[in-house]
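Anyone up for a design puzzle?
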């Protein structure tokens, strides 16, 4: 057995709280750390796997990475109080923190600002309740609140992002991204962008063609060690009914493994990453995608080292600039931008519902058992592995959620539950703001909606599907297509007023009144029973 046991009770100067997505050896939480006086606290809490119905691989990834991180800190000679699910069994992070404070009587509690406002509020409320309780006062005064420190992992601090955003009601990632490129001198030739333009996205949208993907390099393999194997057994015991298959668990759980994953991507998949990054194909789980987001979000990798590794490979090996720029834009631009938006727009972002959608999540989002082959492929892959790439998320499962009028909150909770790389600061703005347009275009210029024709162009999912992507009405009508045209019909005025969607409306207006009415009737039939699709 390799279960991490709690250390013996003793007092400490600083109790350093390290959350499951803060596994950063250079964390600001460790500034001034004194092994003789201070104590690191790590808590496994059941609620972190149950407040949404978390994928088993997501839970294994977090718990295994946490246990490996604690092992590394102990190897340094640091004291670590590790509260494990199979030992202390805390229901919530707050329960674990309260028990640790009672046990170790710290003079101060320190931590890095959480990436989840729910967690932050819960922990702060716990400290307030302790301080206000009859037994909450120390001989030398009341217990202090948690002292949050800045998360140095990110390349744009929250104050810097707020200054950049200013009072504007509309934010655009492209301009933020350019400022980050200039600040960190990434892909720059003096004051000008390498290659003469900032963005090569238009070159990165190719499908596979009839031949399908060719010469795809397999991802690296990370064989579970004793710690990971024990965590897998624990998760099957405690959360066996949750979605996911752990037989092929293959995610980096240490910094050493994360660096291997980074090196493998830069060497084997980055050269061809760009041109097919939006393409999909039956049985193609990874393609040329990086698989680094989970390691970045756990803080096993630093974003600057990832960006610099990609740029160095470009300059050393003369890689395709569109591929390298497209990848760097995701890390230096979009990832940092999402984090800034989350903290700028919470808590309103959590309840945003621009279109007033309230349909419940279809049951097949949890099973993949739908007649729509594109949804079946993407959801089945997700439920199996806890992973799908950005187009599968945005332009299949997310796009359907918009046109099917599904509650943004229900779908956001699903995304947070099923993806191994999901942490709320990145998941919520991506889902509510980009995929679902729930915040009304705060940082996107149009809703991401399309008909089944898009899915057919970018994949082979439509082959053999019982629905026909070109058909809007009738028994073989594709729900993606029917609901797309119905959505345009509902929002014709706003789409016509937007230069980026005006052309969609012109196509809509070519329909006669009778055909429009048929689309409305077909859509209403579908919306009345989404579970049957």
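Challenge accepted. My sequence:
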């Amino acid at each position: 057995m390799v279960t991490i046991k709690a250390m013996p009770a003793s007092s400490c100067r600083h109790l350093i709280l390290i959350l499951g997505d803060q596994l950063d050896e250079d964390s600001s939480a460790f500034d001034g750390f004194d092994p003789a006086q201070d104590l690191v606290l790590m808590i496994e809490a059941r609620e972190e796997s149950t407040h949404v119905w978390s994928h088993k691989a997501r839970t294994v990834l977090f718990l295994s990475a946490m246990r490996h991180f604690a092992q590394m800190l102990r190897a340094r000679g640091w004291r670590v109080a590790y509260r494990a699910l199979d030992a202390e069994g805390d229901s919530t992070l707050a329960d674990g923190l309260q028990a640790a404070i009672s046990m170790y009587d710290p003079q101060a509690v320190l931590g890095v600002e959480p990436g989840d406002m729910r967690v932050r509020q819960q922990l702060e409320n716990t400290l307030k309740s302790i301080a206000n309780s009859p037994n909450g006062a120390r001989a030398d005064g009341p217990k202090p609140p948690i002292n949050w420190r800045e998360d140095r992992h990110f390349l744009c601090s929250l104050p810097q992002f707020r200054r950049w955003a200013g009072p504007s009601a509309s934010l655009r990632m492209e301009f933020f991204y350019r400022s980050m490129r200039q600040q960190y001198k990434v892909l720059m030739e003096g004051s000008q962008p390498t290659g003469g333009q900032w963005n090569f996205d238009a070159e990165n949208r190719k499908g596979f063609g009839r031949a399908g993907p060719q010469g795809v390099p397999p991802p690296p393999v990370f064989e579970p060690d004793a710690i990971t194997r024990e965590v897998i057994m624990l998760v099957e015991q405690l959360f066996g009914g949750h979605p996911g298959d752990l037989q092929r668990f293959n995610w980096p759980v240490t910094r050493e493994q994360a660096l291997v994953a980074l090196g493998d991507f830069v060497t084997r998949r980055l050269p061809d990453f760009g041109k097919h990054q939006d393409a999909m194909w039956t049985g193609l789980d990874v393609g040329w995608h990086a698989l680094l987001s989970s390691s970045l979000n756990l803080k096993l990798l630093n974003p600057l080292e990832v960006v610099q590794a990609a740029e160095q490979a470009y300059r050393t090996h003369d890689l395709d600039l569109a591929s390298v720029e497209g990848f760097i834009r995701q890390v230096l631009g979009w990832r940092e931008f999402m984090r800034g938006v989350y903290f700028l727009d919470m808590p309103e972002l959590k309840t945003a519902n621009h279109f007033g959608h309230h349909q419940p999540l279809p049951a097949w989002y949890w099973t993949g058992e739908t007649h729509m082959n594109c949804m079946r492929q993407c959801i089945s892959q997700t439920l199996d592995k806890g992973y799908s790439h950005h187009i599968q998320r945005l332009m299949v499962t997310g796009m359907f959620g918009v046109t099917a009028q599904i509650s943004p909150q229900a779908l956001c909770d699903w995304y947070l539950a099923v993806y191994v790389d999901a942490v709320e600061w990145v998941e919520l703005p991506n889902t509510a703001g980009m995929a679902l347009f729930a915040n009304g275009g705060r940082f996107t210029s149009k809703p991401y909606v399309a008909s089944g024709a898009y899915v057919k162009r970018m994949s082979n999912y439509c082959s053999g599907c019982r629905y026909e992507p070109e058909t809007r009405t009738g028994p073989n009508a594709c729900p993606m297509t029917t609901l797309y045209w119905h959505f345009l019909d509902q929002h014709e005025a706003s789409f016509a007023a937007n230069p980026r969607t005006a052309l969609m409306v012109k196509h809509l207006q070519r329909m006669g009144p009778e055909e429009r009415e048929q689309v409305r009737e077909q859509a209403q039939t579908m919306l009345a029973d989404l579970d049957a699709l």
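A detail worth pointing out: Residues 158-221+242-345 form a domain with the Serine Threonine Protein Phosphatase 5, Tetratricopeptide repeat fold (CATH 1.25.40.80).
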